[in-house]
Specification:
Ribosomal Protein S5, domain 2; alpha+beta
């Protein structure tokens, strides 16, 4: 029969409820919270600061370093073990690659900007929420940026393209499922992250990317609104 109705009643191209704030951690140089549905990401930025050990320094420009972590009892699924596991390291790496194209660190040779992303509560879409929160935190820190980066997961659930998967959709067992996290620079439409886990045809993948770009533009408006609420008086 296929996937004809979403578990939470949303339209197939509809985002979950979204909330965003910046400046939530007073001692950080920049910080942000991004919530989408029941997934909550907190991001804190520290730096630029001199990078140690010195052999890791880049004399041409600063380095962006990201750390992603799901708290032990944050997941709707199995308990997450404390500390950085293999998955967390992978997501930390792709987060840095997704954000790096918009951050100008040419004025900070031999320095590092650290971005820490914590997930206290999750229901799918964690890396996308983390990237979105981190982009806002970098802007809150006053770093020179070409644009923000916004991110969302789209998917193929038994032949139906859906936007912003929830956990029950990722775990759907009555047909093939594909989870596709995407990050985008909204001003150019450039994709800085595209991953694929599961089964999907070429035609459906093209449709999924198109839906993701439309959803990212909606998320970007919420990012900008959160920054304006703090800085525009």
């Amino acid at each position: 029969m296929g996937y004809t109705k979403r578990f939470d009643g949303r339209k197939f191209d509809e985002l979950r409820e979204v909330e965003a704030k910046v400046g939530i951690i007073p001692r950080a140089d920049g910080s942000a919270m991004f919530r989408i549905g029941k997934t909550v990401a907190l991001a804190a930025v520290y730096g630029p600061k001199e990078l140690y050990p010195r052999f890791m320094q880049n004399p041409q420009q600063g380095i962006l370093r990201c750390s992603y972590n799901m708290m032990p009892f944050s997941s709707k699924g199995e308990r997450v073990r404390p500390g950085q596991n293999r998955r967390a390291k992978e997501i930390s790496y792709v987060t840095e690659k997704a954000l790096r194209p918009v951050v100008d660190l040419s004025q900070f040779p031999n320095a590092v900007v650290d971005v820490f992303i914590e997930l206290p509560q999750t229901d799918a879409g964690t890396r996308c929420a983390g990237i979105t929160a981190a982009a806002m935190a970098l802007a809150d820190a006053g770093l020179t940026m070409k644009d923000l980066v916004c991110s969302v997961a789209v998917g193929n659930i038994d032949g139906t393209i859906v936007t912003d998967l929830m956990y029950d959709e990722e775990a759907y067992k009555d047909g093939p499922v594909a989870d596709i996290p995407i990050a985008m620079i909204p001003s150019t439409g450039e994709i800085t992250l595209l991953q694929l886990d599961g089964e999907i045809s070429k035609d459906l993948l093209v449709k999924a990317i198109r839906e993701a770009k439309a959803a990212c533009l909606k998320i970007n408006q919420i990012q900008r609104q959160a920054l304006k609420q703090k800085y525009v008086k």
